[in-house]
Q: What sequence folds into this?
């Protein structure tokens, strides 16, 4: 995730080394988009991060973006700020169970898993996913003509309707933003899969059923078709 490099940008803000990439802004954060891209991303519930933290994440991106444009090194206080609101720190915050953790309700988790599977093989190819109590991780490769933003939107709409009905509530269920990253080689894909599959155990969730991974052949094919390094994709999935 390049979190050890204070000049690295937040998830989704590091431009890949291959292919044609578009940058879209759907809120506070930029999103790198690539036709048939291979992605690792996280979507989280509306109450899992307060607005103040989201604003700090956006500020972190602005600082890093300005430093990259100007070729400047971050000042010591900026380095501290960037580290404090890194993706790794945010993931740790999620894993502590912030917010109401509605995805811990089997009815809602099942609805999200169903949404993941619905367009599998038609709009995208699923590689791995994990539904945590207040967020979800997904690794997928987009199929021709699909956009990540539209895919995520369809999942959120389906799940929000189910969740609000099951919980007898109204209002926003998901946070609008999501953290995404284009996977660039086999090593990165393997690390992402390992992270997703181990996340429940790392967070102290025993016998957690809401986690899934495709077989080796599917993973390797997805890596190669997305433009990731061929040898790395093969060697690191053995």
A:
């Amino acid at each position: 995730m390049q979190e050890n490099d204070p000049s690295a940008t937040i998830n989704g803000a590091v431009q890949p080394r291959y292919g044609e990439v578009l940058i879209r802004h759907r809120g506070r954060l930029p999103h790198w988009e690539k036709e048939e891209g291979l992605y690792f991303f996280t979507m989280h519930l509306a109450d899992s991060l307060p607005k103040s933290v989201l604003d700090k994440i956006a500020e972190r991106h602005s600082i890093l973006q300005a430093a990259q444009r100007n070729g400047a090194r971050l000042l010591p206080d900026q380095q501290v700020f960037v580290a404090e609101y890194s993706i790794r720190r945010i993931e740790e915050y999620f894993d502590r169970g912030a917010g109401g953790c509605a995805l811990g309700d089997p009815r809602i988790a099942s609805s999200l898993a169903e949404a993941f599977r619905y367009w599998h093989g038609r709009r995208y190819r699923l590689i791995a996913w994990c539904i945590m109590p207040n967020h979800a991780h997904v690794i997928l490769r987009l199929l021709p003509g699909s956009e990540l933003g539209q895919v995520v939107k369809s999942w959120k709409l389906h799940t929000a309707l189910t969740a609000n009905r099951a919980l007898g509530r109204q209002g926003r269920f998901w946070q609008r933003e999501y953290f995404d990253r284009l996977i660039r080689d086999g090593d990165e894909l393997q690390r992402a899969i390992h992270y997703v599959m181990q996340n429940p155990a790392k967070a102290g969730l025993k016998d957690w059923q809401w986690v899934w991974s495709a077989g080796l052949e599917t993973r390797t094919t997805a890596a190669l078709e997305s433009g990731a390094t061929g040898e790395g994709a093969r060697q690191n999935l053995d």
